[in-house]
Amino acid sequence: MITIAETVAEVREQVKAWRKEGLSVGLVPTMGYLHEGHQSLIARACAENDRVVVSVFVNPTQFGPNEDLASYPRDLKHDAALCEETGAALIFHPTPEEMYPNGFCSYVDMDVLTKELCGLSRPVHFRGVCTVVSKLFHIVQPDRAYFGEKDAQQLAVIRRMVTDLNMNLQIVGCPIVREADGLAKSSRNTYLSPEERKAALVLSRSIFAGKKLAEFGETDAQKLVDTMKSIIASEPLAKIDYVKVVDLMTMQQIPKLDRPFLAAMAVYIGKTRLIDNFMMNAGGTAE
Ligand code: PAF
Fold it and tell me: pLDDT tens digits for 61-90?
């Protein structure tokens, strides 16, 4: 059975032993309830590192007061089986008290990139993400860490943090994994009723249409946004939080598709907030 470490000390001891043997270490930070999207990160990490640590921690500091912290799905047994079968060596599954002991009051915060997209509707989110991810980097000290492109803003924020704070590791972004019908895999898909699950397809339909438009040479960001919004508006169960086109590095909105860009959306299907996106270079080639 794969080892599940609950304390920082256990993880440090294990990583120290691996380092003594000269082994490289990869980290896959997750909030658990693992699906094929996470599995693709773990598989890539296993292919590129001698040992892989998967953290499973539903991080309270990245949830706002009215968000789904309490109901966020959890299944450690399933997660452990998936990690083991994919080749990970260790799961780090701390308690909230282990990560945030009494008196905790140090945070990692970021300007600019976190003030757009999900940062607007989730004001404390990226402070929580940056704080927990930098803690995980300090605890595990990996050579590489793996993040999904589905959370494209998170990936850009983490890359920026690593550059700005001189963190000594490589960040690897991995492509979105989709269901056969196009829906991006997400632990939150489990919240959807059968009717909502069908309605949720409007996100990927809208993403694919936007992508096609850009591939065919559209350079006006507003036209892309309008096309994507009109597709979402055709679904009565969908309510748009945002649909935006931003510079891939700075996350600031751009009028022209004249540089690498991210087209991103957050859409409520009933009470469930889902995100999806595509990234592209200027001229419609794949990012
Ligand atoms: O992407 C996630 O699951 C989380 O935001 C992360 C990176 C594990 C931090 O809690």
Answer: 999 999 999 999 999 999 999 999 999 999
User: Is the distance from the beta carbon of residue 132 to the nearest atom of ligand 1 less than 6 Å?
Assistant: yes
228: Cβ contacts below 8 Å, ≥ 6 apart: 206, 207, 209, 210, 243, 263, 265
**Angle 278-284-287 (CA atoms, 0-180°, nearest 5)?**
50
pLDDT tens, residue by residue, 129-170: 999 999 999 999 999 999 999 999 999 999 999 999 999 999
* CA 154 to centroid of ligand 1, rounded, Å: 8
Task: Scan for tokens 């993403």, then name that residue.
Answer: 207
User: Which CATH architecture fits 3-174?
Assistant: 3-Layer(aba) Sandwich (3.40)
- Say yes or no: CB of residue 176 within 6 Å of ligand 1: no
CATH topology for the 187-282 domain: Pantoate--beta-alanine Ligase; Chain: A,domain 2 (3.30.1300)
Expressed in angstroms and rounded, the spacing between residue 128 Cα and the centre of ligand 1 is 9
Ligand 1 pocket check for 189: Cβ under 6 Å: no
Gap from CA of 132 to ligand 1 centroid (Å): 8
Q: Where are the domains of the chain?
A: 3-174, 187-282
Residues with Cβ within 8 Å of 273's Cβ and at least 6 positions away in sequence, in order, are 188, 241, 266, 267
Question: Is 138 in the active site?
Answer: no
Distance CA 262, CA 153 (A): 9
* Residue 133, ligand 1, Cβ within 6 A: yes
Residue 284: band (very low, low, confident or very high) from pLDDT cuts 50, 70, 90: confident
Distance CA 113, CA 157 (A): 6
